Each structure stands twice: as structure tokens, then as C-alpha cells.
Amino acid sequence: MRKPGQGVWNIIRFNWHFYGVATGVGLLLGVLAAYSPAAFRLYTYALLFLVASPTLVSLLVSYYVYDTSNLYSLGWLNVGDSNDQKTVVNIHAGFDETSELLRQHFAEAELVVLDFYDPTQHTEVSIKRARAAYPPYPGTKGVQTHALPLPDASADLVFVLLAAHEIRQPAQRVSFFKELRRSLRPQGRIIVVEHLRDPANFFAYTIGFLHFYSWSTWQGVFRAAGLGVEEEKKITPFLSVFILR
User: Fold this and answer.
1) DSSP codes of every residue in 129-154
2) Where are any strands of DSSP class E within the chain?
3) What is the 3-state secondary structure (H, E, C) of 39-69?
4) How is the chain split into domains, by residue range?
5) Is 80 helix (H, G, I), strand (E, B) or coil?
């Protein structure tokens, strides 16, 4: 069971250096605004607003997405009877909040968990803190995106939840999805959940939205890998689901 506020609290504690700096700058600007000459006070308050508002908006949106939406309840998932799935694969990039949820949802299936975290490429300190706080799901295998240890036509469902954008090189993304296609049974599906580089996520995360990819970029990756989009939906205005065949 997820705890109340767990999602936004994880963001704060894994990125405390950023929020510490933002808080310090905000307090400094607040003091300057209180004691600066009247002629400069408006400009100081404007700077304070520019620092504080994006930070607060991003936290509020994150709380909405990760703590109040049905993202982690899997209420958005509609892929038939969960008892019909024999092999379910969950692939992440070093931070796994979903394998236990999938284990509960697909209780009769074999669950394979793969982690493509590479410390030489994924150098963000937030991921290192997350890995220290959340031990890997039992049996998790470390993998490379271009060579997944999955037999051909072996998977009924493959989940890539908030992880595929961590593959930063275009050719590697295509190679990864080709590997997923190879692993699928004829009626299997790949479930991809991502933030997009779009106006909604710019509103939420300002320049942080550049860490994500656009809708057209993902469509190009899927086509290049020989996959078709069976269904596309929104969990929230900030999260997109692509169900691929």
C-alpha cells in the first residue's frame, strides 16, 4: 500500500539539493523584499514569484499525478482478464515502485523484472538516492537495452512505466523497442507510460519538460520498431499511456 503523499515526498527527498537551494533563494529574496527600498521592492517580489511559483506548481502537479490519480492503482489498465496473462514483464531504469503492484494485479502470472540502470549513463544523484531507499524487487535482473534476456515470443504483457525516456540515444530507443517486439507473443501488448514534452508538462515543470520526449518522437520510435499503437489514453493531462501491438 502506498502511503499518503508518498509520491511527492519521494520527489522532495530524492531531489532535496534542488529544493534546498530554491528555499534558500526564496527566503533571501523575501528578506530583501521586506527591507529593500520601496522603489526596488516590486522587482524583488517579482523575482521571488519567479523562483517560488514554478517550484510550488511542480510539487502540486506531482502530488496530483503520483498521489491522487489512479496511476498506481492501475485503474487505467484495460487489457482483458488478468488471469489470462501467463508472463508479465516489468522494465524500469533503477527505481521500481510498480513491480509489487503488478505482482498483486497479475497474481497468477510469472513476473519478470528487468532493470536497465547504468551508472555510467544515468548519473543523476536522485536515482542513486532512490535506489538506496528502495531495494530491488526480488529476482530483478540488470540488463542492457539492446539485448534483453527474454526468449522470442514469450511475453504476454510488457510494462515500461515512466522509464523509457531514460534511454537518451534515439538509436538505442529504437533498438530497445525492437527487443520488446521480439519478446511479445502474437497477441501480446507493450504498455508504455510517459510524460510528454508538451504544453501541459511545460506548465508543470517549465524547462524540466525537456527531459521528456514529444508525442511525435514516440510515434517515430514505435513505427521504427515495427509496433503499432492499439490505444492511446491519458491518465491525467500530464501522463500518456501507449498500448502497443
Assistant:
1) HHHHHSPPPTT-EE-BTTB----TT-
2) 87-92, 110-115, 141-142, 155-161, 184-194, 229-236, 239-244
3) HHHHHHHHHHHHHHHHHHHHHHHHHHHHHHC
4) 6-68, 82-244
5) coil
82-244 topology per CATH: Rossmann fold (3.40.50)
- pTM of the model as a whole: 0.91
> pLDDT > 70: what percent of the chain?
98
| Nine-digit cell string for 166 | 531514460
Max CA separation in the chain (angstroms): 71
**Residue 243: closest CA among 150, 180, 197, 169:** 180
Note the pLDDT tens digit of each residue in 14-33. 999 989 998 999 899 888 88
Q: What share of the chain is helix, strand, coil (3-state, %, to 5)?
A: 50, 20, 30
Q: How many residues does the chain have?
A: 245
Mind listing the pLDDT tens digit for each residue in 189-235?
Answer: 999 999 999 999 999 999 999 999 999 999 999 999 999 999 999 99
